[in-house]
Amino acid sequence: MKHFNTVSSYLEYLELPGPEHPMLSVFNSKGDGFLPCPKESSPPITNDCYTISLKKFVKGDLNYGRTKYDFTNGVLIFIAPRQVLQWDNSVVFEQKGFSINFHEDFLKGTELAQQIKRYGFFSYSANEALHLSPKEEKQIESIVASIEIEYQNNQDEFSKDIIISQLSTLFKYANRFYERQFLIRKELGNDLLVQFNRHLEAYFESGQLKENGVPSIEKIANEMSVSQRYLSDTLKKETGKSTTEHLQLYLINEAKNILLKPNKSISEVAYELGFEYPQYFSRLFKKKEGISPSAFRELYKMN
């Protein structure tokens, strides 16, 4: 797999114009113009750059994951360093919007270097892109226009600080707009929760639990074709509980059913549920139910 250490080498591979700054590039379509088109296809590649792109696809539809989206309005996509990129030439688009690429070292020594790690949207995959309303699109485009002015000007001692400040503002708006998207896409949140529980049910019924232990959230998310971070954020917004909490609740409900079988010890129940250490199972059960597994069993006997 090819890896690109600089913005220049990455853009050269894409067959795009070279950057005006060694660690930053800005492409912005204006008026009736279009963005420069990168090479038609590529095997998997990685680079050391952050990318923020607003793409309006004038011709055709695009499949992101398993979902077909209408690109009448803008779609904002965030890519973090060392994420694997790949595309083919199955569909050709005329693109409007913007694309900003900057090397991760561009942020070194700034507050944004730490802040950017807290923005979950850099962990989201393409089918979880941010869909902007026309008003939101204009707000983002105005910030990018300011970035482009600084980018095109002769660089001075103030340029980097100004661009960093504008990037920080762009990310704050993106964070706000993602919050809005989570709130209005409740149907998606419900669907993800149903899928999540179905995958857990299938895993339990397959007998993998005892052999392989409790499934990781990453494994479940991959099977659902979503990123781990997006799954957790969506369920948290919709239900108030994280993916880990949903997994634990599922385990506790299964535990209750098994505990009602008097021929199994507490340790056997723990091992059957995929816990390597029975003490951890007992602590988790008591934390969620307020009583120990043995006390739950006794309580059931009394009733």
Question: Layout of helices and strands, plus pairs?
Answer:
Blueprint: E1 2-4, H1 7-14, E2 24-28, E3 42-47, E4 49-57, E5 62-64, E6 67-69, E7 75-79, E8 85-87, E9 95-103, H2 112-115, E10 130-131, H3 134-152, H4 159-184, H5 186-205, H6 208-212, H7 217-223, H8 228-239, H9 243-259, H10 266-272, H11 278-289, H12 293-302
Parallel strand pairs: 1-3
Antiparallel strand pairs: 2-9, 3-8, 4-7, 4-9, 5-6, 7-10
Helix pairs in contact: 3-4, 5-8, 9-11, 10-11
Protein name: Helix-turn-helix transcriptional regulator
Domain HTH araC/xylS-type: 198-299
InterPro entries: Homeodomain-like_sf, HTH_AraC, Tscrpt_reg_AraC-type_HTH
Question: Could you describe the 3D structure shown?
Answer:
This protein is α+β, with helices and mostly antiparallel strands. The chain contains 12 helices and 10 strands. It has helices spanning 7-14, 112-115, 134-152, 159-184, 186-205, 208-212, 217-223, 228-239, 243-259, 266-272, 278-289, 293-302; strands spanning 2-4, 24-28, 42-47, 49-57, 62-64, 67-69, 75-79, 85-87, 95-103, 130-131. The strands form 3 sheets. Strands 2-9-4-7-10 form a 5-stranded antiparallel β-sheet. A 3-stranded mixed β-sheet has the order 1-3-8. GO terms for molecular function: DNA-binding transcription factor activity; sequence-specific DNA binding. Residues 198-299 form the HTH araC/xylS-type domain. This is Helix-turn-helix transcriptional regulator.
Number of helices: 12
Helical content (DSSP H or I, runs of 4+): 40-55%
Structural class: alpha+beta
pLDDT averaged residue by residue: 81
CATH class of the largest domain: Mainly Beta
For the report, how would you describe the main beta sheet? Answer: 5 strands, antiparallel
Taken from the alpha-carbon principal axes, the silhouette is elongated
Tally the beta strands: 10
Gyration radius, rounded = 24 Å
Residue fraction in strands: 15-25%
Under CATH, the topology of the largest domain is which?
A: Jelly Rolls
How widely separated are the two ends? 62 Å
Q: pLDDT below 50 for ≥5 consecutive residues: which ranges?
A: 58-71
Strand order of the largest sheet: 2-9-4-7-10
Number of domains: 2
CATH architecture annotation name of the largest domain? Sandwich
* SSE string, helices as H and strands as E: EHEEEEEEEEHEHHHHHHHHHH
Pfam families: HTH_18 (PF12833)
Organism: Rasiella rasia
Protein name: Helix-turn-helix transcriptional regulator
Domain HTH araC/xylS-type: 198-299
